Amino acid sequence: MIELYTWTTPNGVKPLIMLEETGLPFHVTAVNIGKGEQHAPDYVRINPNAKIPAMVDGDVRIFESGAILIHLAEKSGKFLPSSGQARADVLGWLFFQVGSVGPFFGQLGHFRGAKLADTYALDRFTKEVERLAGVMDARLAETEYLGGSEYSIADIATIGWARGLEGYYKFDMTRWPNLQKWIDRVVARPAVHKALAWKP
Length: 200
Fold this sequence. Notes:
Strand content: 5-15%
Number of domains: 2
Radius of gyration: 17 Å
Structural class: alpha+beta
CATH class of the largest domain: Mainly Alpha
Largest sheet: 4 strands, mixed
Helix content: 55-70%
């Protein structure tokens, strides 16, 4: 059985959504990052970066959410096209999330919550999050899902972050109507709803 180590963060829910979507058998071990449990030696042996999520699938240990999603997609045969432009598009949008959406949304959240908030940092990360939302909105004006016409690991990777644009980050979503429609469509999926509601 797959053992998932995670917590209730936008990165942490990615593999949980994927496991719910695929129906693969799994067990979740909560890693309370607020208590520093990600630094425990036993956990660091699985994830040397001491972050969540991480996963053990038989003899395979995997860290980094994008790598976990690709592993699960290939194991299940779901949510990642096997070849061609369709695969390239899904992987491109997956790594768009890993390399841009996650880091910049996360930094904006950090600096908004910092007691000594730096005006330059807030301005920089706010503008970049707005730009990234615009990139997604433009993409979703052309296609139903980020990776193309079919739901994929690109959507699974991104939904945990994007759904916070209005509630957590307090942006006016009328600026990005296509993105809002996509958020509503993805969150309505039963597996996504279940994963987002998970509590340790």
